[in-house]
Amino acid sequence: MTLTQLHRTLITGRWVIPIIVLLAFGARLMVGISFDEITPWIVFTLQLAVALLLSQINHIFAVISRRTILPAFFFLLFSMSDPLYYYNWVGNLSSMLIAICFFLAVKNYQNEKSQIASFDIALILTVGSFFCWPVLIYFIPLFWIGFYYFRSLSWKSFFASLIGILAAYFFLSGWSIYKGNLTLLFERMPRIESFSQFNVIELSVFDWITMGFVVFLLIVSGLDIFMVGVSEKIRTMSFFRFFYLILAVSLIFLFIFYPAMKNLIFIFSVPASFVLARYFTMSEKKVVSWFLVATILIFLIRPVMIFLL
């Protein structure tokens, strides 16, 4: 099989996803995870659900103009690359909530009556910040910008979003009063001091190489989308502007919320999967094929390198 044929097979081959699922399943067994443990298998199920949702978003809304399974493939590839991710239900559930919000946002492209979707997104992320991970609530303004990109932001949808946030806090305050414990409410209020200082990211050499390579590919993909891909529809450009917004803010959050880096990686992986899938799907140049092979090899080798280092 030539490099070009391999590239085409990875883009459209139906057997690619089952293979990556089997590899992810086998990786868990290799690190000693037994079937008696519940958390890693719940995490595995969440990862499969997110991958399926990303695939459906692309299939239903044609985020990438050619049919491909690469968004699901890349998310599974990223999530299987570190054994520490196998127990991280918070990060995986966070990525699931973000993916659901992506679905609602993309679904309401150019919808002037997007109040319900705006309310649902705010409610999902606010409740998720209560019970899953506090940082989720900071992504709500990004969806306001996303709705602006999608030409579906109006004063009604904006206030619907605010009502969604207030509704979540209303029920939480009621529950706190019922329990006689207002600490439950105050502990879940957004804190300005969360942004008070930046942290230096401490990674291994191989992790820096991996991160640098992925960021390089995202930059190259961005140049291809926004400077070369002039024939792309405005709708497609709007989607990817929003994806890059999430990617940029996620990278900034890595420095602000460094202790929660393992959770941000999963949120980062959702838009990154779409961006890289679009880049590798829309071009079959030899250098692009080599980049695709290199990406797969890096993330397949990464678990081994983690054990060695």
Binned, the helix content reads over 70%
**Annotation, overall tally of beta strands:** 0
Instruction: Give the averaged pLDDT, no decimals.
Output: 84
Apparent shape? globular
Major sheet: none
Number of helices: 13
Low-pLDDT segments, ≥5 res: none
Strand content range: under 5%
Cα end-to-end separation: 34 Å
Element string (H = helix, E = strand): HHHHHHHHHHHHH
Based on CA atoms alone, the radius of gyration comes out at 20 Å
Structure commentary:
The chain has 309 residues and is mainly α. It is 73% helix and 0% strand. The protein is built from 13 helices and no strands. It has helices spanning 3-12, 16-30, 39-61, 70-79, 89-107, 115-131, 140-149, 155-179, 183-186, 205-228, 234-256, 261-282, 286-308. The two termini are 34 Å apart. 37% of the residues are buried. The model has no long low-confidence stretch (mean pLDDT 84).
